[in-house]
Fold this protein.
Amino acid sequence: MEHTIYRGLEGVHIDTTQICRIDGLKGELIYRGYDIRELADKVSFEEVIYLLWHDDLPNAAQLEAFKTELRPHFAVPDAIFNLMREYPKTVHPMHVIQSAVSILAAFDDQADDIGLDNVRRIGAQLVAKFPTIVAGFERVRQGKEPIAPHPDLGIAANFLYMLTGETPSEAATRVMDVALVLHAEHGSNASAFIARATASTLTDVYSAISAAVGSLKGPLHGGANAAVMKALEQIDSVANVEGYVLDTLAKPAGRVMGFGHRVYRVLDPRAIILKGVSHQLAEESGDSKWFDMSLEMERVMEREMEKKGRQVKPNVDFFSASVYRMLGFPGDMYTPIFAVSRISGWMAHLYEQYADNRIMRPRLIYEGPVGRKFKPLAER
Ligand code: SDX
């Protein structure tokens, strides 16, 4: 019997969803009916989390109640910071997040309850704790004490506050909110798929989220933003960009990080917004080095992909690299920041998966040997 193989599950739809729609030909992204270009600089990350987890944006009273629900969950057990102090300085921050998720599971005596109310309780805990974990690790690895979350600040401002102890400016908070809104949700991307596939065995939320964190870390997925900055730092000037791109494309299966997408065949709408943010930060800071290099890389890739007849455009990770650099984050923090946002999308997918589950179990077509004659060890 002939089987069709969909490598990388390209084009395969695993279920229906109410959360998000991506139109790869038009370059459109909607969260529960709202166009991302409408939402990006008009709502806070908390409003988007509420939208992803309910069926509409919150009104003022609902938003206030949601923020009140999250606030007590910002704090994390000392065990997490104590473990961070034991880690080698070289540990990858995504491993720190993954282990923190497991510690949170250990301290939650309801961890294994996958009833919807409990899943929502855990979701609120995780979305509130991820910023504290990431900011706390950055402080600990600098040999500093973690800063307790500020009771009056929202997630975006609190994340920046917990890094420095200074209340961030309106402008910096706005940029952080835009970045978190843009990275919150993107359909069945690899890490969301892994979250759903893991939850489909009816294991607990923490196990599913830990698996998703591991998937996001990969350079073909959420790890790409850090890889973009690593490349830009290695290139170090606009004049060297063209040579780098040509050398990379000349390598077998060479990939220029931050470009290409399995679904978008035109510019990722999030990249367009982040390009504008990067430009604005470059103008405000007076240092346009990383933005200028990014523009040059986009130009050369456009030209080279045209020659190859390929639609390979900047994705969300491309301009977010220069944005995070100009916000002062170290390169290996870019993917953790992605996780601080995407935990909201992963939880939305878990709500859907647990509510109407079927275990995910794809097939492989065996092409190995058959009918081999067994020989005992003494005869092999
Ligand atoms: C994210 O899925 C999501 O929605 C993810 C995400 C989200 O919000 O969750 O949007 C976030 O992960 C964005 C992607 C970040 N990753 C990168 O920037 C890594 C670099 N990109 C590529 O590795 C690649 O484009 C992927 C992984 C993003 C997509 O992989 P596909 O769909 O398997 O595409 P492919 O590798 O088969 O490439 C198809 C063609 C190839 O041409 P041929 O070899 O067939 O001639 O396009 C070319 C590739 O050469 N191509 C690239 C390229 N990406 C695709 N060529 C050069 N550089 C690239 N980056």
